[in-house]
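Run log // design_07
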């Protein structure tokens, strides 16, 4: 392939244009991100008015598609369609977004690395039509050092006790497929919601707190290979095989959990609004060449399996695999929305009941001690870029006889802020004969968060109590609901996440308070169940 010179590009492109008219039943112009980046052509046959086909593809399979187009042109079939492919490498999620938004550079044919993106390319009128389900495949694998694979029973199990490093699920297929695999395997593992949340919520918070999400797999694989590293990386078998070839001394292995895995399936979708018949036939011809025996060795050398998932040659990769059920479009959409929600940082105020009933014992500890222990553990789940504050509440404990007292103002979780939060938590004790000034506290806490609203975070009040309102001098429930509903602003939502504990809590009361702000409530009749409290609070967004 002739290489271009930037200083001579206009002359070069003119020459290409002339040759296009004199050559080519099928030929290809290569492009990196835009047609202006074209730097070569392939041709054969004879036609003078080729149908122009813009084909966008995920970068890693671009060379194989070019080779297939070249092979088609070399056949010089007089009955072959007169086509010109311009093949451009574009990340799949970017293309899905551009197609959905009706961008001017929308392709006629599209080869994403996963069919999971196809429904995301809905422009409001139609979804791209998949005409070839798969021109190659590669299973999702989990890569890490051998010592990190003590538990390979499931994706969820493999993530426990390690440090999963997912490429950004919103833009990278390996990250998205990892989320989908955790969901898809639940039909086999029957994992409880609480277990899934205990693994995935902290993971989303940790990765969501990064200044930049992970978008490049080789760097992550390098981290995973470091001696003693707990990092494991979900990626394609193809990416792992290529990394092994380039880094033969890296002490990494790839596994597929016992539950099975999902696939990078490389479909061809028609995105053109006209000439669909010609373009569809062109896609089928290109796919037939990609899947031909003549192309099989080059495909295998590049680390791709065929559409039947035949293992790679030479003992490379992970061998035979079990497939998980392919998620449908609604499951993909839900996974993307959940990740967006869960990975947002927090701007929250924790409000803890210190009324007299918190002195009651459960086993050998008081409710107050159990709450402090749960809150202390929960504090560790919040990333450094979260902002948290702490109040306590009981009747008339404030400086002006309010039912609440500020202990730590809301601020980013620097080491100093964490220390303040921890010191204040551990210093709390129940106030003998103190009442539960729940209603006034709920109103004041929502107002406090609204005053310092953070539009880049989830703004919430996490309200912990073991009882129900018993302040006769405070507002009624009806008045409180009316006030909370009056403060509700869809543009700046502040939600109450109410956590009730113990046999005396009024679940209906908490539910109404939370619902008035668009929040949720939970009741743990046994305070020993509070270890999941902060997980629930983070998940309720």
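design_07 sequence
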């Amino acid at each position: 392939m002739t290489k271009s010179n930037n200083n001579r590009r206009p002359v070069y492109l003119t020459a290409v244009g002339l040759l296009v008219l004199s050559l080519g039943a099928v030929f290809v112009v290569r492009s990196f991100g835009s047609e202006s980046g074209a730097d070569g052509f392939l041709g054969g046959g004879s036609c003078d008015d080729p149908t122009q086909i813009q084909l966008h593809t995920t970068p890693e399979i671009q060379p194989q598609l070019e080779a297939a187009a070249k092979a088609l042109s070399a056949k010089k079939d007089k009955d072959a369609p007169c086509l010109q492919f311009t093949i451009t490498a574009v990340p799949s999620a970017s293309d899905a977004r551009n197609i959905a938004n009706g961008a001017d550079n929308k392709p006629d044919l599209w080869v994403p690395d996963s069919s999971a993106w196809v429904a995301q390319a809905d422009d409001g009128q139609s979804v791209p039509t998949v005409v070839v389900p798969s021109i190659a495949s590669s299973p999702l694998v989990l890569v890490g050092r051998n010592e990190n694979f003590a538990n390979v029973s499931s994706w969820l199990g493999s993530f426990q006790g390690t440090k999963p490093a997912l490429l950004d699920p919103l833009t990278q297929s390996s990250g998205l497929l990892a989320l989908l695999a955790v969901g898809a395997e639940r039909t086999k593992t029957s994992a409880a919601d609480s277990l899934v949340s205990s693994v995935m919520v902290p993971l989303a918070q940790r990765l969501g707190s990064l200044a930049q999400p992970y978008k490049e797999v080789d760097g992550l694989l390098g981290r995973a290979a470091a001696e003693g590293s707990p990092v494991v990386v979900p990626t394609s078998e193809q990416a792992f095989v290529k990394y092994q070839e380039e880094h033969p001394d890296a002490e990494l292995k790839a596994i597929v959990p016992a539950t099975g895995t999902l696939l990078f399936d490389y479909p061809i979708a028609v995105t053109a609004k006209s000439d669909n018949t010609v373009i569809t036939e062109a896609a089928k011809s290109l796919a037939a060449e990609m899947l031909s025996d003549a192309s099989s060795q080059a495909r295998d050398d590049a680390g791709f399996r065929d559409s039947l998932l035949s293992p790679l040659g030479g003992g490379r990769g992970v061998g035979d695999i079990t497939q998980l059920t392919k998620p449908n479009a609604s499951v993909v959409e839900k996974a993307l929305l959940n990740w967006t929600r869960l990975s947002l940082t927090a701007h929250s105020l924790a409000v803890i009941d210190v009324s007299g009933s918190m002195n009651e014992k459960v086993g050998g500890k008081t409710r107050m001690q159990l709450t402090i222990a749960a809150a202390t553990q929960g504090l560790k789940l919040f990333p450094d870029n979260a902002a948290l504050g702490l109040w306590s509440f009981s009747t008339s404990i404030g400086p002006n006889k309010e039912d609440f007292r500020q202990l730590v103002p809301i601020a980013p979780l620097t080491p100093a802020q964490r220390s303040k939060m921890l010191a204040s938590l551990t210093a709390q004790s129940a106030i003998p004969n103190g009442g539960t000034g729940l209603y006034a506290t709920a109103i004041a806490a929502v107002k406090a968060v609204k005053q310092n609203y953070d539009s880049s975070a989830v703004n919430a009040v996490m309200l912990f109590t073991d009882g129900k309102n018993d302040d006769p001098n405070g507002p009624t429930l009806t008045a409180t609901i009316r006030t909370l509903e009056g403060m509700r602003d869809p543009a700046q939502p502040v939600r109450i996440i109410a956590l009730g504990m113990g046999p005396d809590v009024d679940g209906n009361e908490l539910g109404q308070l939370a619902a008035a702000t668009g929040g949720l409530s939970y009741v743990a009749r046994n305070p020993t169940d509070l270890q999941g409290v902060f997980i629930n609070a983070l998940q309720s967004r």
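The CA atoms of residues 385 and 412 lie 6 Å apart.
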